Amino acid sequence: MQSLADILPGFVHRLKGLEPVLDRRLLRVRRDQVEHLAGRDQPLPPSAPDVYVVSFSDEARAAAFGVAQELRGAGLAAELDLARRSPKGQLKQAGRSGAPLAVLLGLDELGADRVRLRTMDGGGEEDLAAAGLAAQLAARLGKES
Hints:
- The chain is built from 7 helices and 5 strands, in the order αααβαβαβαββα.
- The chain is of the alpha/beta class.
């Protein structure tokens, strides 16, 4: 299997120091997208995250990073707000991102060791246990490994 450096020679070395910024984007890069960047393919298909993580407070923001990392570790494409938007702004961004699910974290959820799950197309919400969240969402999205 070719590495990113093999497909895009001369480009990757210019990215040194930007790894944290590019981390969440590169997690979603597929081989066909990389080949497109190298001029070998048709236009990129749109790529939406599986889950968007929304935090309702500064305390929940720290937990949101952990939840996103757990979801990514389970193979789900998870995004979260890096621009410190308000909860309303984060929910709007979740809708624009195309993610079918949003995980909502607030002080109430943190205290109860639960998360609130919102279905973005219908708007329905339900509470889920925080333990084993990645497996629950993977099953719901049909991405069980």
